[in-house]
From TrEMBL:
Protein name as annotated: CTP:phosphocholine cytidylyltransferase involved in choline phosphorylation for cell surface LPS epitopes
Magnesium is among the record's keywords: yes
Domain of life: Bacteria
Record's keyword annotation contains Transferase: yes
Pfam families: NTP_transf_3
UniProt-listed InterPro entries: GlmU-like (IPR050065), MobA-like_NTP_Trfase (IPR025877), Nucleotide-diphossugar_trans (IPR029044)
Keywords attached to this entry: Magnesium, Nucleotidyltransferase, Transferase
GO molecular-function term, one example from the UniProt record: nucleotidyltransferase activity
Occurrences of domain MobA-like NTP transferase (ranges): 3-121
């Protein structure tokens, strides 16, 4: 099992915190998110880790030597970074992680063991974290609904009712080689501008319209997304108050 961290972005919403380093190197209680991710992946059963890099590429290389440079990092999104790692994803099943989230290793262990060509981790108790991060949780929430068989039914639309979200995508997922090839095939006729602007939930929504089965893994452990300075402050406070240690 191999791992891939999508770490091309600067994270401009973090302001001065990413003036001289990539978003992934933002520290949470003294430890960078990237270090937390590497430890979680390795402890959870991943034996090889690569990264999609871009902004201040050389700083990521201090931690991960196997890099795939996204030359369009300033004008593209997560899906483009994923596709930049084509050769890597085509060789083995891969756990893919955003670089702006922290999580414990047991989530990785569960994802490694999960069945399916495309398996996404989601938080069924998302509202608690969103209430900490946003004055109105619906400002950043997207639709997330499941089929009767437990697979993904709907994702990525704006919502005005919490009942339309059985969870929220965490930015952590598993792709078999077959799963990655399904994604490649779905995008092969799209132009570069479309792909550059495509985010991950929009991609998943496209796959659903083509009747691709997307399996899910419900996560009940602590995890946190850090997109701006407020998120960082809230996360650190929550971890300290609840004695949460990830590394």
């Amino acid at each position: 099992m191999q791992g891939l961290i999508l770490a091309a972005g600067r994270g401009s919403r973090l302001g001065d915190l990413t003036h001289n380093k990539p978003k992934a190197l933002t520290k949470v209680l003294g430890v960078s998110m990237l270090e937390c991710q590497i430890l979680a992946l390795e402890t959870g059963g991943v034996t090889c880790i690569a990264a999609a890099s871009g902004y201040m590429n050389e700083m990521i290389s201090t931690y991960i030597s196997n890099l795939f440079y996204n030359i369009d990092w300033q004008s593209s999104n997560m899906v483009r970074s994923l596709l930049c790692c084509n050769d890597y994803l085509a060789r083995n099943t891969t756990i893919v992680s955003y670089s702006d989230i922290i999580y414990p290793s047991n989530i990785i262990t569960q994802l490694v063991e999960a069945k399916g060509d495309i398996v996404i981790a989601y938080d069924p108790h998302w509202i608690s974290q969103w209430q900490l991060r946003f004055d109105n949780p619906l400002d950043d929430a997207e639709s997330f609904q499941l089929n009767d068989n437990g697979s993904l039914k709907n994702i990525g639309s704006r919502i005005d009712n919490v009942n339309l979200a059985s969870g929220q995508f965490m930015g952590l997922f598993k792709l078999s080689v077959t799963g990655y090839n399904i994604i490649k095939t779905a995008l092969e006729c799209e132009d570069a501008a479309f792909v550059n602007n495509l985010d991950m939930t929009a991609l998943l929504s496209i796959l659903l319209t083509r009747e691709v089965k997307i399996d899910v893994l419900a996560v009940n452990d602590f995890w946190f997304e850090i997109d701006n300075a407020k998120d960082l402050e809230v996360c650190e406070k929550y971890m300290e108050e609840n004695n949460i240690i990830l590394i």
